[in-house]
Amino acid sequence: VSADDEISLHEDDEDLSKALQTVQEQTENAHILALQSVLTSKKSVSETPQAMDDFFCNFLVRLGMSRTLDCFQTEWYELIERGVLTVEAAGLVPDVYTRNQQLEAENLSLKKDLENYKHSVNKKEEALLKMQRERDFHRMHHNRVVQEKNRLISDMKRLKAHYASYEPVLKQLSEKYQHSLTQKMLTTLERDKAMGQ
């Protein structure tokens, strides 16, 4: 144990077993730190190359070829067990294939998003057309009401003009009526006077 070590032994603990335990703890701590640096490295898990058998299995599962998958796994593990083939000899899937799968998955996701957007746009277009039809209906109704109002106003003006043309005649007739009424009264008074005499 070095003298400048962080975890130094106390002076009363100068036992060999304690010293070995301390050294073992230090190596375990160093190993844990090394694993943490590997886990927190910039390369993500998805960027690590995929094993060839995993690639084929995932491909067959994605296509729904379960019987072919069973046959492939049976033959693959049989060859590995016989020693004809090793996992290292099969190698890893080139990054291009993995990248193509990622791009294909992204493409499918974008197509699904596009379909969702098209669906929402179609709904919005239908709502817009419905609102435009309602607007046109209300506009037509409003125009009809305005036309009826204008027609009624013109009818009222015509009737007022017509009534205004009858007003002098009515005035003249009421004057004649008043005059004839006074004549009648005068005649009845003269007749009563004549009768009285």
Automatic annotation (TrEMBL):
Q: Which GO terms describe its cellular component?
A: axonemal central apparatus
Q: Which residues form the signal peptide?
A: none
Q: Which InterPro entries match?
A: WD-F-box_domain-protein (IPR050995)
**Domain of life where this protein originates:** Eukaryota
What biological process terms from GO does the record include?
Answer: axoneme assembly
Q: What UniProt keywords apply to this chain's record, in alphabetical order? A: Coiled coil
Question: Which residues are in coiled coils?
Answer: 100-134
Q: Which named protein is this? A: Sperm-associated antigen 16 protein
Species annotation: Lamprotornis superbus
